[in-house]
What we know:
Elements: H1 2-21, E1 25-29, E2 37-41, E3 49-55, H2 70-73, E4 78-82, H3 87-92, H4 100-115, H5 117-120, E5 122-132, H6 134-144, E6 166-170, H7 178-184, H8 200-205, H9 211-217, E7 230-233, H10 252-265, E8 269-272, H11 284-293
Parallel strand pairs: 3-4, 3-5, 5-6, 6-7, 7-8
Antiparallel strand pairs: 1-2, 2-4
Helix pairs in contact: 4-6
Amino acid sequence: MRYSLMLITALSLSSICQAEDLQTQLNVSYGPHARNVLDFYPAKSDTPTPVVLYIHGGGWRGGDKKTNPKAFLDKGISVIAINYRYVQNGVKENVEPPVKAPLGDAARALQFIRSKASEWNLDKTKIGATGGSAGACTSLWLAFHDDMADPKSDDPIARESTRLYCAAVNGAQVSLDPKELREWMPNYRYGAHAFGFKDLQALIDNREKVLPWIHEYSPIEHVSKDDPPIALFYRGEVPVVGASPKDPTHSGIMGVKLAERLEAVGVETVLVHPGIEKTKYKNSTAYLIDKLTK
């Protein structure tokens, strides 16, 4: 009995020391492309920590993973920020559609993170995604998409789940369907590059041909009752469906339409935009801290 107690104590101390010894790791490779790298910011803890997965914005054509993790680290939440292939990388590599490159990379990064859970002292069941604009769209796509794990794969990383515990996003695009978007906002013009077209009119003209792609890569198309809690944050004007906002690419109109779909199937949803006076959460950081530390 004394030996068992000593062994358990030794193992516990070892676990604590391992957690405290974890250091920030930059540009850790999770895939074959030069942009398949992530930064790991570990929170100090003697138990596995929740994780914020930060996916940067930039239209899937620019941007970088640089972020400030302090607010989360102070609450015992580790942060992992990823880079991913741009759509132009997808075009160069003949990926069809080009948006499959950044979104597929994000899914792979999430699986890689789960594969490192023991080594990095992470709670793989509590991963919340966040980002702005295109990074927000990617976060929502991961949150709603059916699990992309391949349990029969020879690759242990590919066997890991791609499901999220929650997501909190800023200025998210929720659909890549030009028909739907123009019905919501007549002046909408963003997103054609995701499918390799020069402008939205070209995408509209070819919509029927690429409709399977539109359905696959539009987050709103994957909404179902088993999706995780979602928080949507928007700035700018008070959203009015059918209006032409100054910044349609990041308009709260999209949040209104997505929230309608989520609430219809019973998914816990927080929507914050101009015109909403009272809200429990001021921003996505506050939401994620609350959800991931409960």
